[in-house]
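Pasting two entries for a bug report.
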Amino acid sequence: MRFVSSMTGLGVACLLAACGATSSRQSFDAQYPLVTAERSDGWSRADRLAHREAFLSAVKAPPGEAVDWTGDTVTGRITSGEARLAVSAEEPAGRPAPAGLRIPGPMEMDLGAHALKSNANVRLGPSTDDKVVATLKAGTRVEVAGRLVREPWALVAQNGRVRGYIFEELLIRPEGAASRLAGARLATPTYCRRLSESVGANGSASEWSSFACNSGGEWILVSD
């Protein structure tokens, strides 16, 4: 009775339908996919929920910041690594990017070298409401890693590192730069984080690292 009352509606429905133990476990794992079933074997629901809350805090934290968590019988620490911008979740290593970068939709990718016509704020998202992370001076050269399809914002990079968004009208192609080719590749980049985890349970300890990527507004574990 105690076990049933602590489950979600999906888990209760499964019990009422006389689902097997394996089916219940599969449904539960599908709801809390931020740690592999092998690593979380024996964890209670409270352990998994505590881990999930810490995980979702760590993916938003500055690089190097640690988030501690405590469940019923398991304790852990998740340390956030550098944020990355990837072409897809299948290749999460991507390029270094600022923590908290927003990816609202598809972009024309890799549009080459540009220069700033005037001083420009670099932001975490394509809006004047988004946080300013840097200010670049007029004449600064940047690489346009992407340009939003329906918004006048460009995602810029320097020295292989994604910096953030600049209002497109502040950019100009420098003299001598090759003209942008028509039909630029369209893609929706994926924002990813490298995470390091340590867990203690029943007198034993384990450590691992993984990548998590934000896909469609949801965080998913993409590699281990």
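Entry 2 (this is the one that rendered wrong in the viewer):
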Amino acid sequence: MMRLDLSRIRVALENQGQSAVDLSDLHVTYLRPGQDGPVLAQLTSTQRDGGVATFTLRSASEVKGRRWAAEINTRHVANLNVVTATPAVYDEGLEALITSFPVDRRLSTLSDVLDEGVMRRKLADHFATRGHGDPLEACRASVIRYKSESKCVVRYELNWRSRSENRPDVLYGKLSKPSIFARSRAVADHVAEIGCATDFATPRWFGAIDSLSLELWGELTGVPLADAELGEAVPVAASVGRALRSLHSMKANLADARPDDCIELSLTEATHHLSKHVPELASELTAMREQTAPFLEWSRSHPPSPTHHDFHGFNLLIDGATVGLLDFEDLALGDRFHDVGALLAHFVELESRSSGPTVQFEQQRAGFLAGYGELDSAESDRLAAYAAAHCVLRGFQALRKPGSTNHEVVATLIRVARQFLRGENP
């Protein structure tokens, strides 16, 4: 089992050659739990030049970990990437593979995607094949979001010799592991359809560079709903509700949701891990899972709708009266209350982090649901079950991001889940 011993990790990084990093500032930013403990951890620290260094620990046996390290190091030497420290090492004391960003075990092209010289050539060639060739004189890359062994979103600022709407000045590249990349590629053509048929604004799709597993999207302006001030979030909630209802009313030739995206499976996993971390809530979590199960299973008998499946405040961009929608990798036919319940639960989490354990989100909830439209009693029961389930899932997500307030957030989310199931207005 992987050990999260910061002292030992600092020693391992020193031995790896991380002399440019202030390891005294090293801290865990993300955990992926397994049955017996964490299987992946993402850590960051401050570089001596003021930048941020990111590291990943991946649980592995000695045989597998040393093999992975050798493969990664060989790959980077072959690609002639210049590194100041060994890209990957296995530490037997930690029982973990250690990699240093931009090295990633599963995102093998990450270094290329961040190399401005490489991407200047790749992007120029990509647009030339689309009939929009023109010299690309400069390409500046900055990381927007990185999730170890899963995905990385990069913002590219481009300087073309001549301007054209078919050659954007700003592009967002999404590099992802093969399973995510395949799903995203499959639904990309539906994104423009969503922008035309719903009240959501959507980013423009500029194709993909398959050799890099990199999707290319245009820019959407706005502030994430999760970052909006309360005074801004309340008025826009009704607009979000109306836009979501228009998405759910679309006729789209989408695939059914993946079996592993079933909320019942996710809820079972979340209940298991939360019960281990917060044992005083174990019996209540189990009871809630059993109470919600019939509603979640029953909902399968309803006609499926186009469902975003990752509908939360960071994927919604607010720009005046315009609501933009991002991140379509899980777009599929499913139960529409998956989306409605997800945003309600995220409202709870956002306000619990900003206001402490007392949640006051009635105005956002009321505006969002009013915009979404009236529900009959059976639909209200389904929504309550999904909202409660998503509160538990948000609590599990909170534990993945270590912080002193997360146990309070979890307790608040479980309390509100209980209220949802009692038919109350939290």
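Dev reply: Rendering is fixed now. As a check, the viewer should reflect this: The chain has a mean pLDDT of 90.
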